[in-house]
């Protein structure tokens, strides 16, 4: 265990069909902040799309959660596989941020000189029904 309460996972990187996939270990509190901020941002986009009509905030939040959070599990958590779609853009990098409770998939695209970017985009979030051992994660 490390000081943040997670287990050590070797940083893994693999090149898959012209795209880089990088896996890194993160802290649970970082994931919670990222997940909540991403859901809030998407809920606000839904609010904007509806013309700023008030009274639908819970609906917007629930829709944003459904779009972001993936339910990949069939009940067997002793061993499972997650298949993450790799973009066809060779300039895109997929970043898998892991904790013992969740995985966030980020997409990072190459930026041109002078282009301002806010970092990688959250593509999906996978919440694990029980704690996993991050030392046993393999990229294939």
Percentage of residues in DSSP E strands: 25-35%
Span of the ends, CA to CA: 25 Å
Order of helices and strands: EEHHEEEE
Main β-sheet: number of strands, strand sense, barrel status?
6 strands, mixed
The spatial strand order of the largest sheet comes to 1-2-4-5-6-3
Gyration radius from CA atoms, angstroms: 17 Å
Determine the structural class based on helices, strands and strand pairing. alpha/beta
**Helical segment count:** 2
Helical content, roughly? 10-25%
Shape, principal axes of CA atoms: globular
Q: For the residues shown, what is the average pLDDT?
A: 80
Contiguous runs where pLDDT drops below 50 for at least 5 residues: 1-9
What is the number of independent domains? 1
> How many strands?
6
Tell me what you see in this structure:
- The protein has 140 residues and is an alpha/beta fold.
- It has one domain (12-136).
- The protein is 24% helix and 26% strand.
- It is built from two helices and six strands; from the N terminus they run E-E-H-H-E-E-E-E.
- The chain has helices at residues 28-49, 57-68; strands at 12-16, 19-25, 69-70, 92-98, 102-109, 121-127.
- A six-stranded mixed beta sheet has the order 1-2-4-5-6-3.
- Helix 1 packs across helix 2 (57-68).
- The longest helix has 22 residues, at 28-49.
């Amino acid at each position: 265990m490390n000081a943040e309460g997670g287990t050590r996972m070797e940083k893994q990187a693999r090149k898959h069909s012209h795209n880089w996939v990088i896996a890194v270990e993160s802290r649970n509190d970082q994931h919670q902040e990222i997940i909540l901020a991403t859901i809030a941002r998407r809920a606000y986009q839904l609010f904007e799309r509806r013309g700023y009509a008030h009274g639908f905030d819970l609906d917007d939040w629930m829709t944003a959660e459904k779009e972001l959070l993936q339910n990949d599990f069939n009940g067997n958590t002793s061993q499972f596989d997650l298949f993450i779609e790799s973009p066809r853009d060779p300039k895109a990098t997929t970043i898998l941020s892991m904790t013992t409770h969740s995985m966030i998939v980020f997409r990072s695209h190459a930026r041109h000189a002078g282009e301002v970017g806010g970092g990688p985009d959250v593509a999906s979030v996978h919440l694990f029904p029980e704690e996993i051992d991050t030392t046993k994660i393999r990229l294939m």
